[in-house]
């Protein structure tokens, strides 16, 4: 009697296996994508670099994350400065950069900073960079 039960189980299993051969489902495929794909935005860096050459800032505008830094590298054989606003358009502090040297400034808060070279930016008044003329103006966007 036990042999017949074992035989019956084997025949039932074989029959089920035979009938499942034509089944189009072959299990999940990973990774599974649902919905429309979205582009992953490129994050802003923590550090950006600006080169001063020929009395111009290159690039003139950079974007960083808050808490990040910007390094200005003076490649000219004469001095320049970084005179940033305080985020509200008022000039904060003049940072001199000697010839062939660099300066690093940290930006702890999210804001937009305009800056200029106090030596070579042309006419500037108490409001920083927004009213300055010439190639020695720039912007730091802190996200």
Structure description:
This protein is mainly beta. It has a domain at 47-142: Immunoglobulin-like (Sandwich), CATH 2.60.40.420. The chain has one helix spanning 2-19, and strands at residues 47-53, 56-58, 61-64, 68-74, 80-84, 95-97, 102-107, 111-116, 137-142. Strands 3-9-8-5-6 form a 5-stranded mixed beta sheet, with no helix packed on it. Strands 2-1-4-7 form a 4-stranded mixed beta sheet, with no helix packed on it. The longest helix has 18 residues, at 2-19. The radius of gyration is 33 Å and the shape is rod-shaped. It starts with a helix and ends with a strand. The relative contact order is 0.18. The model has no long low-confidence stretch (mean pLDDT 80).
- In whole angstroms, the N-to-C terminal distance is 79 Å
What is the 3D form? rod-shaped
Mean of pLDDT:
80
Unreliable segments of 5+ consecutive residues: none
**Percent range for helical residues?**
10-25%
| Gyration radius, rounded | 33 Å
Annotation, overall tally of beta strands: 9
* CATH class descriptor name of the domain at 47-142: Mainly Beta
CATH topology name of the domain at 47-142: Immunoglobulin-like
């Amino acid at each position: 009697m036990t042999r017949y039960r074992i035989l019956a189980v084997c025949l039932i299993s074989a029959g089920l296996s035979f009938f499942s051969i034509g089944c189009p489902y072959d299990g999940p495929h990973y990774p599974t994508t649902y919905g429309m794909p979205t582009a992953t935005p490129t994050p802003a860096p923590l550090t950006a670099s600006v080169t001063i050459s020929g009395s111009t800032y290159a690039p003139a505008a950079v974007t960083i994350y808050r808490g990040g830094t910007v390094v200005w590298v003076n490649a000219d054989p004469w001095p320049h400065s970084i005179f940033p606003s305080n985020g509200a358009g008022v000039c904060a502090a003049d940072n001199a950069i000697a010839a062939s040297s660099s300066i690093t400034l940290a930006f702890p808060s999210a804001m937009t900073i305009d800056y200029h070279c106090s030596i070579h930016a042309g006419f500037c008044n108490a409001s920083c960079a927004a009213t300055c003329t010439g190639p020695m103006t720039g912007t730091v966007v802190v996200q």
